[in-house]
Amino acid sequence: MTQHRTLVKICGLSSPETLRATIAAGADMAGFVFFERSPRHIDLETARTLGLMAQDRISRVALTVDARDAELDEIVDALAPDMLQLHGKESPERVAAVKARFDLPVIKAIGVATPEDVARASAYRGADVLLFDAKPAPDAAVPGGAGVSFDWNLLRNIGAANWMLSGGLDAENVAGALRVTKAPAVDVSSGVERERGVKDPARIADFIKAVRAL
Ligand SMILES: O=C(O)c1ccccc1NCC(=O)[C@H](O)[C@H](O)COP(=O)(O)O
To answer: With contact defined as beta carbons under 8 Å apart, do 11 and 168 qualify?
Structure first.
């Protein structure tokens, strides 16, 4: 039986130092947040710098929340992402429209708290990758990156082909999460930070080491 390597995405990078550490540690994807209320938000000038640094070294993922086309145009122009991550309340139709407009693979985040939330994901067949994350509170100011996990058992026997697990992962719990879910890819933000919004190169390396040790 072929055992595929688990892919790792480090999300919410905002400095050259931590992007460099992420590439050196062997991550597959680097996520950049474009959402002004987030402590990880980057402006277009920073996106241009980090996008060039990452080019041909790691896949660049632009994360947005219910962004309009004009905003996405600017982000795509600045970062030149390899993928778009839609982390808001985008409908399946909106996901298809964004994919068609930018001709880029799309990751759609699905907030999970109940089996019904997992079932809801089947509507997003048009997305290239489904990212299962802890469901934010309806009134949350920032709908992700909160370091909160959910019941991984909800993802046992999941039918989706391309999907990622996220929500409250860190170097200590990621092995257990992968044992339960057998996820083909994992995504982390808070679990590799020294304080909210500040990535820690040592924690990034430890997280990737923990995944690769499996
Ligand atoms: O990171 C943010 O600040 C953010 C803001 C708005 C929407 C999504 C956001 N982050 C998403 C992620 O970083 C991850 O994909 C996921 O939520 C896991 O985060 P964490 O639980 O902190 O590891």
So the answer is: no
